[in-house]
Amino acid sequence: MSFFKTLAEKPWQTQTAGANFDETIAEPYRIPQKIALRFFLGIVGVIFFLFMVTFLSRTQYPDFQALAGEPWKPFTDSTLLWFNTGALLLASIFLQLTKTFSRNKNINGVIFGLLCSTVFTLVFLFGQIHVWNQLASLGYFMTSNPANSYFYLFTAIHGLHLIGGLFALANVAIPFFSTRSFEALTKSLDLCKTYWHFLFIIWILLFLLLTGTSETYNTIAVLCGF
């Protein structure tokens, strides 16, 4: 009986089921862009982590003067930085919405989402430049204090990554308007969305670090063993 059962089998159907299983397992490996992005974000994360460690170590030197604490220090009132943070958050949210619009094949929603995400990203970047100008007008130049140097360094590197993201987003959006391939756009927007969310999290960490007081740095340094 088992012999006739074997003859009655339909191998092409079992192969299909097996193929689906293999495709499910191998899906991440069939998207090199996703692997490359994760690898890149890992490198960027390590770089910022090392910068943060050196920053905390540098706060323990006597010539380091925090940019927040006393009322006359520029980041005691961090309203402008909060405004910039809100702009970057909105850029990330609209990029998430754009992916949803693309999945639903809503062309007007895609255009609106891409436009809003780009505008709010630019608002964030120009807001950071405005903070730079404000610091310079108050006499907080790059070489005046190690805390100043780190602020300019952190925000410049973070801003450059965002500018690179805008070029990548343009490289995704421009071909879409000629091909109208929502499937390809959705996959690309998934990568862009991940990138923006990642940079937003990095900025939150930098924001909390750069607006800390001397007491905060000393506490963190003790916990980290500096």
Describe this structure in words.
The protein is mainly alpha-helical and 226 residues long. The chain has one domain (32-224): Four Helix Bundle (Hemerythrin (Met), subunit A) (Up-down Bundle), CATH 1.20.120.80. Helix content is 80%, strand content 0%. It has eight helices and no strands. Helix 3 runs parallel beside helix 7, helix 4 packs antiparallel against helix 5 and helix 4 (79-103) runs antiparallel to helix 7 (182-210). The longest helix is centred in the last third of the chain and has 34 residues, at 146-179. The chain is elongated and about 60 Å long. The N and C termini lie far apart (76 Å).
* Residues in helix, %: over 70%
Question: What is the 3D shape?
Answer: elongated
Q: Spell the H/E element sequence.
A: HHHHHHHH
Largest sheet: none
Count all strands and give the number.
Answer: 0
Termini separation: 76 Å
> What number of structural domains do the residues give?
1
CATH class: Mainly Alpha
Uncertain spans? 10-30
Rg value: 24 Å
